Amino acid sequence: MIVGLGFLIGALIGALIARKKGGNRLDILQHAAVIGVMVAILALFVNILILRFI
């Protein structure tokens, strides 16, 4: 759940960054995918840490 939410938030942030820089549709899609995956991986590690300490 945390990982999916992290991906969605990261994709939204990536799309907004690319749109602000004046990118076309493919630029927006690429930024959204890359930043979404990066945030999802970070959320995965946070999820593992949370489950380890509980």
Automatic annotation (TrEMBL):
<feature type="transmembrane region" description="Helical">
    <location>
        <begin position="28"/>
        <end position="51"/>
    </location>
</feature>
<keyword id="KW-0472">Membrane</keyword>
<keyword id="KW-1133">Transmembrane helix</keyword>
<protein>
    <recommendedName>
        <fullName>PEP-CTERM protein-sorting domain-containing protein</fullName>
    </recommendedName>
</protein>
<keyword id="KW-0812">Transmembrane</keyword>
